[in-house]
Write a structure and sequence with these properties.
This protein is about 35% helix and about 20% strand. It has about 220 residues and is of the alpha/beta class. Strands 1-8-7-6-5-4-3-2 form an eight-stranded parallel sheet.
């Protein structure tokens, strides 16, 4: 079985001590950095812009998994590639020509991800799943950290896994929102490959230990 990855979400980090939190993730059992970019239009919140991501990239020693919760993401593909992004995820709901966006991301040298909001069915990816490296299923309504997990996510993971298997695609399934030790095993059992954890990691008394325990739980 391939290793299940843990991707701490820097949206939940302490912004006054961002370098400290990045170093913590570097030294931990985490696999990726998950970075949420919000524009206040596509989602009702604003997060970090380019200068902050540039600073993160300077210190981060692991895969940069950037999740764009923005309108018209195509405008910024080259910028994120230049910052050293490894995986760039755009929202299905924000892309008029999804296939073109995926091609542009890959042409810029990154892996291409597609995120789905809780109400968006996975069947909409039927025609382009072979071109997608990662599908990020939102298990909360996007825009704010610390929300509670939407239970229907398990069904979506199973449906997506079935689609990926049927098409013989190499696509990874990522879960973003409300991930804790209470649902991690069940998500992996349903077919998840990558678990994004924000508040659960950074608000815990010992984030390094929390990451280690989560990684052990899903890889045992």
């Amino acid at each position: 079985m391939s290793k299940k990855r843990i991707a701490p979400s820097l949206l939940a980090a302490d912004f006054a001590n961002l370098q400290r939190d990045i170093e913590m993730v570097n030294k931990s059992e985490a696999d990726w950095f998950h970075i949420d970019v919000m524009d206040g239009v596509f989602v009702p919140n604003i997060s970090f812009g380019m200068p902050v991501i540039e600073a993160i990239a300077k210190h981060a020693k692991k895969t940069l998994d950037v999740h764009l919760m923005i309108v018209d993401p195509d405008r910024y593909i080259a910028d994120f590639a230049a910052l050293g992004t490894d995986i760039l995820t755009v929202h299905y709901e924000a892309c008029t020509h999804l296939h073109r966006s995926l091609q542009a991301i890959k042409a810029a040298g990154m892996k291409a991800g597609v995120a789905l909001n809780p109400h968006t069915p996975v069947s909409l990816l039927e025609d382009c799943i072979e071109d997608i490296d990662l599908v990020c299923l939102m298990s909360v309504n996007p825009g704010f950290g610390g929300q509670s997990f939407i239970e229907n996510t398990y069904n979506k993971v199973k449906a997506l896994k079935a689609l990926i298997t049927r098409k013989g695609a190499p696509t990874l399934i990522e879960i973003d929102g409300g991930v804790t030790d209470k649902n991690a095993s069940e998500l992996v059992l349903a077919g998840a490959d990558v678990l994004v954890a924000g508040s659960y990691v950074f608000k815990s008394p010992d984030p390094t230990e929390t990451i280690l325990a989560l990684s052990k739980q899903v890889n045992s």
